[in-house]
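TASK: fixed-backbone design
INPUT:
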């Protein structure tokens, strides 16, 4: 299971030292990717509300052609249009799935949000069917919430 506690601590320390969201988003992606061998691709998409698109901020894993994803499309865009996390055990069952690579079997998308305000999302891919459980989602959510704290602070 992915343990978020250490990552949260590290992100808060970075905040205390004055690091901004760009650094935190990069650190979070690297730490989540390294934490568990089930996680084959981990990235962050940020929402561009004017264009109604998700833009890829940073990732670890194979390059993807989906650097921009319209809201409503794919697992990532559906998370935003429905304002809900997506835990997809088998991506072959999703009609509007946007393939990142041929080996991806499962995907977890966790929103980075402050209430109704959606900043973006953490996106995890795995080559293992049903890779992600509810505990993974909850743990990734705590990381997303810490990132949202910083994004809110920078918006002021
Ligand atoms: N599979 C995603 C696209 C992003 S890639 O996985 C990096 C989707 O269906 O939205």
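OUTPUT:
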């Amino acid at each position: 299971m992915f343990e978020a506690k250490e990552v949260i601590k590290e992100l808060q320390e970075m905040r205390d030292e004055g690091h901004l969201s760009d650094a935190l988003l990069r650190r979070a992606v690297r730490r989540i990717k390294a934490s568990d061998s089930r996680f084959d691709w981990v990235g962050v998409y940020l929402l561009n509300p004017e264009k109604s698109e998700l833009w890829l901020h940073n990732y670890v894993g194979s390059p993807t052609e989906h650097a921009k994803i319209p809201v409503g499309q794919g697992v990532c865009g559906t998370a935003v249009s429905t304002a809900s996390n997506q835990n997809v055990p088998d991506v072959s069952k999703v009609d509007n799935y946007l393939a990142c690579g041929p080996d991806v079997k499962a995907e977890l998308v966790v929103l980075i949000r402050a209430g109704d305000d959606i900043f973006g999302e953490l996106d995890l891919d795995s080559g293992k069917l049903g890779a992600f459980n509810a505990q993974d989602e909850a743990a990734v959510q705590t990381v997303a919430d810490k990132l949202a704290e910083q994004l809110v602070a920078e918006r002021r």
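COMMENT: Residues 41, 43, 64, 66, 69, 74-77, 97-98, 100, 107, 123, 125 surround methionine sulfoxide (CB under 6 Å).
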